[in-house]
Design goal:
By secondary structure, this protein is α+β, with helices and mostly antiparallel strands. Helices cover 36% and strands 25% of the residues.
Length: 211
């Protein structure tokens, strides 16, 4: 059986931080949950098989999506309840769970994420497309990820083909009203400028609130 990755049992402080997506709230902890640069996105309970923490969060009937990064958890709600009603309960739960040393993941997502990126960059692509894909991945990791993590989400590489870059919107980025602007005026312009082969950037993982 795989060893469970567990956060250290120690006093934990948590504060809630609003994101550009009004349905998502970022809960920032003073302890590390994942290695820097690694994040996981669970759009539903079924996807959260690797994370006991996320599974527990989905037990709250208003939790619709869970995103976990280095030192924060972004929760997207599904109901009309106001965050002022939900934040105390979620903050208390997260504090108790992490302080008790509850398991965060059953398998470290870092290796899995690296393998997925490598597969996406290579696949059946030509050598030229593989090189272009790697450039895009590096730009997303170095320039885009740090910025969008501040807003409680992530934008990851999915594929590159004939000038079209497909990315996944995760956490608060999925369903965010400003996602279109971020994608087109920010990320697409950056990639076009740095990688001349890029013609367009399109997104997957978008909810009805998004594009």
């Amino acid at each position: 059986m795989a060893e469970q990755l567990t956060a250290p049992a120690a006093p934990v402080s948590i504060y809630a931080e609003a994101s550009p997506n009004p349905e998502s709230m970022k809960f920032v902890l003073n302890t590390q949950l994942l290695a820097d640069g690694v994040s996981v996105d669970y759009p539903n309970l079924e996807a959260a098989a690797n994370s006991p923490l996320a599974q527990e969060l989905f037990n709250f009937d208003y939790v619709g999506r869970v995103f976990i990064a280095q030192n924060f958890v972004t929760i997207t709600k599904t109901t009309e309840h106001q965050w002022a009603q939900l934040i105390p309960e979620l903050r208390t739960f997260l504090k108790s769970y992490v302080e008790a040393g509850g398991p965060i993941f059953t398998v470290d997502p870092a290796a899995e994420q690296k393998a997925a990126q490598q597969a996406a960059a290579t696949g059946d692509a030509s050598e030229a497309d593989q090189q272009t894909s790697q450039k895009i991945i590096d730009l997303l990791d170095n320039y885009v990820r740090p910025a969008v993590e501040q807003d409680g989400g992530n934008i990851t590489f999915k594929s590159y083909h004939e000038g079209i870059v497909t990315v996944n919107l995760q956490g608060s980025c999925s369903g965010c009203p400003s996602a279109t602007v971020t994608l087109k005026s920010g990320i697409e312009n950056l990639l076009k400028r740095m990688v001349p082969e890029v013609k367009e950037v399109v997104a997957e993982g978008v909810t009805a609130q998004g594009f």
